[in-house]
């Protein structure tokens, strides 16, 4: 796990300075505190920060081919590098190191741009081919590793993080206004844009090429839109388990200590179960909890699983004021606001884990590949209500909408009932609908941006034209929520602690297999992740497998009602905040008062507004 960066001037007469690349590297020390490398050739500069995981002495970057034609900087892991290496050795390639980085060089020499089709892993890769005057930048299939870039007629700047790019720009970017509505709607910014105007993300499963000054961006991987497999359920359980076990096994390849995050939920418990089978010593596990907050505390479940597998278990307790004071740290590393209160808990837990291990396995992805979210289960019910709503006269609908205006939850569900699935589904985190926005937004431009958000998600939903509603929903989640929220949190909060996180349930082979199965293998009635539950019945206690899903809860509802209420209110109603013209003062007052009175849980909305305002002060107001 590392950080990469680079600058390419499109005019060959302009040279990159070593100081520029070193400055970019220095802004990512946390991603690779153990070593740094640079490469400068006239109009091109590459930088690398290294966290040593594989071949501790031999994997130095930037890495060059023997003939010096190819230069590579690489962030991530190629988990099947040993298998690829064996194939390439049979073709006559000679290796100088035992690192996965050298596998990338020889794979490129053998397969060209199609080398990525052979990689099984998480990665952000930059390959410079001197002979062809080509820079190739590749992002892994699911977006586990980030790549950001700025591109204009003069230059390309790219990096694993945004701050190194901002440091190279003479004119700092302003807010990308259409992205604000995405953020308020779903709690993150999906797709290629960021909240910074002109700073973009290379999409998962894509590569960007500049060859002889010609720029192209191409997709190399996507989930296939084809009919489900015709397979017996028990056979599917067996095959899924085999692929999952292999995925975990190759992610345990490491020359440094490794462990696992353990919430006591199904996904993390399944991973710990497999690690326990494959380890000669007790697995090191790590959990977070909250004192005096029994509804949010999962430490009891984690402890039950830990005792079942006799792990070396560690716990961390997060306090409310520590949470509030960590928001600036959260924004420092996420660089864009995301409505993920759990990110702060994950950051603190990562600091604890780093005292014991350098690599950590985690359960992200189970809900996305196996339809485990409650929204997947309730959508058919909303669809039935939508059919009935067509019988209600419009004037009656208007009266109902007006009567619900004060309640965000009721407004959301009423808006959902009046929309078809394709018009309604905006990934699993969508909880700000048009009815809410009409009360929220002061800016007409922001309200009008709702159309862009709606069309974006409608286009995602339409991609799986041969798929069921469930397949379309999970595809939308995998293309938006997963890389732009969940994996941003996972990568940046662990990297902030110089900890490498690996996600076995997001192996692309496992994902492709799971999403090719009949819907009821994944979601059976009210049982999401049905396939995994059945597979784990012989390995985990029944009560762990079938307990109610909690996610990674943080008790912000309680905290924003009590300890953190006054601090939050002071920031959200500050004249500076209101002067931005995004939100009405009445709206902010209303959600704060209703939340404090216990009339409605508005904690997610409050956190999203707080996060956005503090981001504005940190990154935009400091121009």
What's this, in brief?
The chain has 623 residues and is an alpha+beta fold. Strand 13, helix 7 and strand 14 form a beta-alpha-beta unit.
List keywords for this structure.
623 residues; alpha+beta; six-stranded antiparallel sheet; 45% helix; globular
Provide a descriptive summary of the structure in words:
- The protein is an alpha+beta fold.
- The strands form 3 sheets. The protein has a 6-stranded antiparallel sheet with strand order 2-3-1-9-8-10.
- Helix 2 packs across helix 3 (100-111) and helix 6 (233-250) packs antiparallel against helix 22 (508-515).
Q: Which secondary structure elements does this structure contain, and how are they paired or packed?
A:
Elements: E1 2-9, H1 18-26, E2 35-41, E3 44-50, E4 63-64, E5 70-78, H2 81-90, H3 100-111, E6 121-129, E7 134-139, E8 148-151, E9 155-159, H4 163-168, H5 177-186, E10 200-201, E11 206-211, E12 214-219, H6 233-250, E13 258-261, H7 266-278, E14 284-289, H8 299-309, E15 312-317, H9 320-325, H10 327-334, H11 342-354, E16 359-361, H12 366-369, H13 374-389, H14 394-403, H15 408-417, H16 421-424, H17 434-440, H18 444-448, H19 450-463, H20 469-479, H21 481-495, E17 500-502, H22 508-515, H23 519-522, H24 530-536, H25 542-545, H26 556-561, H27 565-572, H28 575-578, H29 585-596, H30 603-620
Parallel strand pairs: 13-14, 13-16, 14-15, 16-17
Antiparallel strand pairs: 1-3, 1-9, 2-3, 4-5, 5-6, 6-7, 7-11, 8-9, 8-10, 11-12
